[in-house]
Amino acid sequence: MPEPAASARPATAEDVEPAVRTLRRAFVDYPWTRHVIAADAHEERLAEFQRLFVSRIGLECGRVWVTPGREAVSVWTTPDSTGIGEVFVELAPRFAELSGDRLAQSERAEAALNPHRPEEPVWFLGTVGVDPGSQGAGLAGAVIRPGVAEAEHAGVPVYLETSRERNVRIYRRFGFEVVADVEIPDDGPRTWGMMRRPGAGGL
To answer: Domain 9-196, what fold?
Structure first.
């Protein structure tokens, strides 16, 4: 696989708003977020969802990597993510507000995926996005590889979910394999759970 066009660095608080702009642009037409976030003021809701995810979940409890120009972002939780449960409980009412009239669909979608999520300790790639104007330059790999490498070093798997079939092929290049293929209820998007075991290659 070719080397990424840029290396990634750990994000700081100063990166939050540029990262949110990138993720907003990257996810504006993503099947999952369209399904679980209300259409009314959708982009504003999406941006606030990503803001909370980057700042409160990624920076506060997990890991976030960005490329130097913040054209690509990845947000992770890890087996060492302390306090993550409390943060999710705290944020649940706000996430429900952001779902708006899609809340029931969001809850049923999560319920469909929960049985397939790993119970063992994993690095969880919660979100990764590349600004549409910068796609095709290897930037996704630049922000995925650091987390995969740290998980590999720790000897633990990496898990992710994607609702775009073309992403399945991309993630396979990093050593991920499909472990769940889920039809989301309410005409939701087909979603794949993927796992990368230590030693799978792709780095």
So the answer is: Aminopeptidase (3.40.630)
